[in-house]
Amino acid sequence: MRSPHRPLVWLPACHRNLDIDDPGGYTVLADRYAQAVCKVGLQPVLYPTAGAGDVPDLLELVDGVLLTGSPSNVEATRYSMMALPTDLLDPRRDALTMALVPAAIAQGVPVLGVCRGLQEMNVAMGGSLHQQLHAEGMMDHREPSNEPLEVQFGVRHDIELLPSSAFARWAGGTKVKVNSLHAQGIKRLGRDLKAEAFAPDGLVEAVRVENAPAFAYGVQWHPEWQHETNPFYANTLEAFAQACNEHRKRRSDE
Amino acid sequence: MKSERVPCVWVAASHRLLGNENGKPQMYTVMDEAGTRTLLNMGLQPLTFPGVPAERIPLLLDSIDGVLLGGSATHVHPSLYGEPEKADALCYDPDRDAVAQPLIRLAIARRIPIIAFCRGCHDFNVAMGGSLHQSLRSRGSPVIHWEDPEHETIDEQYADRHWIETVPGGELECITGRRRFMVSSLHSQGIKELGHGLVAEAHADCGLIEAFRWHDDSFFAWGFQFHPEWGWRCHESYARIMNTFVHACWERLAERAGQPIEERELVA
Q1: Which of the residues A224, A227, A244, A247 is marked catalytic?
Q2: pLDDT of amino acid B2
Q3: How far is A188 from chain B (nearest CA, A)?
């Protein structure tokens, strides 16, 4: 019997001090991720205090993990480099996601990493990052700073998709245009990660986790942005939703 | 499974425009960590369902053992109690209203424990048909109910500010064992008319309602104008209030599981 309960998707949040004199701090999550997840029939859930030690228990309660983008960067010490003075850091999110990524993949909980989320997947699997693509001989992958959101999130460059990949199926071809709002990017691929999409400068734009028991993909672009009018973004999210639905069904059959 | 053995508390989230890395404003779901950390420290599992459409709330409540509605820099929209806006539009949070109003009514109908403080108690009162004073300052009051962020540190803002008096023979007197105690006070709005089915349990010396509960005292459903989650380790009445809520969540978990569940020892 199909459970009336919708699949739950865990969205790890970020941490910020909204007011400089408020030591309490806040857990924050950009609403567009939750809205996109709701729109494809899934229910987002946020565990504000979750740490690495909570991962095994909480993974039992969810049907998918969506790692969101964020203004903050994965702290470079996680891949044996030093953080730049300009890096916004979120060590609590790092501590959670470094444990969450391998655990979710191993347990067959569907994972979709977006932007920082892709980078987290790579670092959690032992890979490394370019800390500033534009200063390391790569293209400038950042959004223009003085433009409205619609322009910043607009499609910016082509990517090449492996012909045999699910991405090529979702895009309906091997070439597609995507948005681009990041300064960091994948340098050395983590273990089990297979590059399936490339920017014109050769940057890895999307990965699949090989031999993962469930959906496990990461993308450098933002498929949650206006996914309803972009078939490639929509197909990506729908495929994630389908995987979460299958997980939900298995969980309620048990 | 261990996680099923810890009460899950749905924390009503707030929403704010925050700058992204370019300083561009975008809407964020925001949770005050003081409230969620208190739940964690007391052995409960806080969570929220960001962006939840109201029609999904009933099913989601199947796995919930308590509801917490905390403070916020925003106010309940006055249209919900039939009054015109008296503050500027940025002071409201329609996304929180859209979840908090049905969430409270459904939790009451399902007898799920509720703790609501500061803005949260306004959510609770309005959900039950009550109304609010939109500006205590302009109403004039012998009791100062609001903080002064320009001259007070955060700790000073949350410090005891004024006395409240419990209703003689009432439930709050029973929980705290006190007729009068000092409370924190960081609010510019307050309860005007109490909602249907709600019972006042404590007042400030100016007469403002500082604590109320759902009339059926067989489950925990309370609103507090002060912040029992902030500094509960050093404030005996707050600790008693929070512990009563925590105990109610464990009872709900046991009821949901259909078997007795041993309440985990708190590491205080």
Answers
A1: A224
A2: 47
A3: 25
What is the Cα–Cα distance from A177 to A233, expressed in whole angstroms? 11
Interface contact B48-A11, CB threshold 8 A: no
Does the structure show a pLDDT above 50 at B150? yes
Instruction: Judge whether A82 is closer than 8 Å to chain B, CB to CB.
Output: no
Weakest mean pLDDT among B65-79, B108-122, B137-151:
B137-151
- Mean pLDDT per 10-residue section of chain A, whose length is 254 residues: 80 83 77 96 96 95 96 95 92 97 98 98 98 96 91 96 98 97 97 98 98 97 96 98 97 84
Scored b (16 or more CB within 10 A) or e, B99-113 reads bbbbbbebbbeebbb
Output the pTM of the full model.
0.93
Domain ranges of chain B: 2-257
Q: Which domains does chain A have, with CATH numbers?
A: 8-253 (3.40.50.880)
Q: DSSP class of residue A169?
A: H
Given this model, what pLDDT does residue A146 score? Answer: 86
Domain B2-257 is of which CATH architecture?
A: 3-Layer(aba) Sandwich (3.40)
Closest CA to A133 of A220, A48, A68: A220
How far is residue B165's CA from residue B143's CA, in Å, rounded to a whole number?
13
Q: Provide the CA B231 distance to its chain's centre, in angstroms.
A: 15
Can you spell out the DSSP letters for B5-74? GS-EEEEPPEEEEEE-TTS-EEEEEEEEHHHHHHHHHTT-EEEB-TT--GGGHHHHGGG-SEEEE---SS
From A14, A19, A34, A25, select the one nearest A74 (Cα to Cα): A14
